[in-house]
Give the backbone structure.
Amino acid sequence: QVVQVAYALKLSEWVEVNKPSGYVDIMVSPTEMPRLTEELKYLAVSVSPLIHNVQHLIKRHTPERLRRRDLPGYDYSKYHKFEEIEKELHRIISKHPDMAVLEVIGKSHEDRPMYVLRISHDIETAADRKPTVLIDAGIHSREWVSISTAMWIINELVENPQDSHVNRGLLDSYHFIFMPVMNPDGYSYTWTNDRLWRKNRRPTKFAGCTGVDLNRNWDFHWGGEGTSDYGCDQDYRGPNPFSEPETQAVRDYVDSLERKPEVYINFHAYGQLWMTPYGYSTDTPPNENEMMKYSKIAVDAIKSHRGTEYQYGPVYTTIYPASSISVDWIRGVEDIKIAYTVELPDKGNNGFLSPEYEVKPIGEETWKGIRELLLNFGVDKEVLNTREFLIV
């Protein structure tokens, strides 16, 4: 009901639901605040300010504030423009040709490359011999910390700066595929025009409205609950499934894989939620208990790092109804058994505008969670193939 009120008042730019915590975040101007408060009073909903000045937080993310510090190399504890990420991906494969391969799987609407980075020991034969882990980020362009987290994990694997024996053991055992920027046009736009832009940048048939929500464009229960057919809405699903070049590129790439991934993780922000399919309804896959088991392993490991607490459960009942999303298509169509959508920190104090000082700790704790998940999955499925550590 609260979300319906927000949309009725045309306050849709920032509306985020967290069911486990029992709140809805809504961005509202001072002039609209009395009207919203009055409407919510009839629903017996209390209202309290969380971020008093969104523009103040946005200013932390202006190019001038985030201008690189004239230091050599790529700083994994900072946010980076698409072009800087692109340059770093090329540097990685140049430095590590034996363990990293970079592929362009398509082009965005504005002709930016859609990159896939594959990482493993013995990379040339890894795709055929090892279970694959597919990790993507940045499908919603304003969620910068999703991209920085994917890049953090990439660096952990290729450079092994911490717990190197564990990371090397995972590289022995798994074939990793990263899609670090799934919405390059939208992400670039957040650096130049609108920090809170969510969708891609393809024009629609609706006058004055640009972009499709790429995470409502997948062909599994397309157009259902939690999507919009109106091009000005944030969750506009597009004119038809896979109408967008970005989702088409990912679909075609995943379809082309001879050995399907065993694990899929789709990064978002924010909310601290580790979620399983489905988003289209309360239906759950047959192996829901198995996915929940590994969810608990991951969130417990994350909490042990610095106390960050995640809730976990199906998308539909944990956050909100959301049809035709990537994790549903991955599980429902591609039959990838272990599939998650992960809403990274925080719980609203910064929302989509995570400060740069959080890039490193979020990256560290998230990798710890995924690492523990993969170690336990590897033991259960007997796929760990390494001399880096002893399995007892």
Observations:
- Residues 278 and 328 are 5 Å apart (CA to CA).
- Strands lie at 15-18, 23-26, 100-107, 113-119, 132-136, 175-179, 263-269, 273-276, 311-314, 338-344.
